[in-house]
């Protein structure tokens, strides 16, 4: 039996080709022009029952869709296939209601439904090009379900001339030019930072900013190549002045305008660019401090970093016997991430928010998949490699992928909870503030052992301290400081002198 449904049966061939075509020759040639996955068929229960039950329980999503399906697939099944192919791929389960209830498909209809889907996706009057499909017949509870898997691929697919995209659990039609352009950017990995502006001149860049970046790079790494370069050589070295080898266009690119341009140049290159920094202490509908940042990225980094430093406590934190600023580390990663890994052509306004729920950033992204990022399955993909490299040279960022590791390591010390990073059309990085913490514990990062070590190190350094001295130095309450000092005294690491009001603690090491 032939593998491809559209080749099975002479009636199908005769309906699609003129009478004088040699059908046997067509049958042998067509598989050569179809994607392998379009003619590849998986059968039998590859999906384990426990996995299938979990899918039914979680319901429809960006990559999961349920359809009833009786004797054949309905039109909206083809719309879903098109939207899956244009997004991140997905699984279409035929024989399941929207609520996850299995209605099943008669076993004798399964093969015919597969043939029908392949015939439709291979029909140029329906699809501009055939999306890849794989099938799996699942038997569950005495009923049959057909899984149609659409793998992620390059290319923009159209069904009946319309471009479909997947948004949550819905198939939507893209009509606006900007939406379709964003889809092409995502599918073909086009870096918009490389766009060349032939009439952008060095004089349009922020005066003195190239010198500042040269000095920063040289101070971080003695002998840095930028130290001996003039401005044009530095711009070429940093890939900010480039030549398009396809068109021959040469000049400063969008990355140069964003990194070093005057404010009016930045907004001319990316009119929607801005970052809204907001601090809310309690009320969700009001803000206590706000700053709208539209300057170039180098200047914006410093502005946003200072804004965060003003509204986030910096707890005392020891790494070995060395004190490190967890606030500065976390802020650097959060700010550099929202500035570097952003799709600057998107109209979505970036946000940096500090409130009682925690610290988070939101920015437009060109995502290759949707979902939560974890360190175990994280594969870093650069969104703007030129901008990222420039930030690395001046110490505003580290190598790709280090940001998530640093956030995983230090976020709990800052606000008491692990970071949550979600990729999609909008990238969200959030560090929740652990609820129910006393102010002293929150200031110390909710790490009691670390607070104890901090008090111990301070006592060893000063020799003698009161609870008030420790409280002022570590930004904790006097009551909390006294608790840790008493604990050190009980362990024989400190000695006491004086009554309750005048008590001082001495290093006993």
From TrEMBL:
Domain HTH arsR-type: 432-509
Any Pfam family: SLFN_AlbA_2
CDD domains associated with the record: HTH_ARSR (cd00090)
Signal peptide: none
GO molecular function: DNA-binding transcription factor activity
PANTHER family according to UniProt: GLPR-RELATED TRANSCRIPTIONAL REPRESSOR, SCHLAFEN ALBA-2 DOMAIN-CONTAINING PROTEIN
Protein name: AAA family ATPase
Species of provenance: Adlercreutzia mucosicola
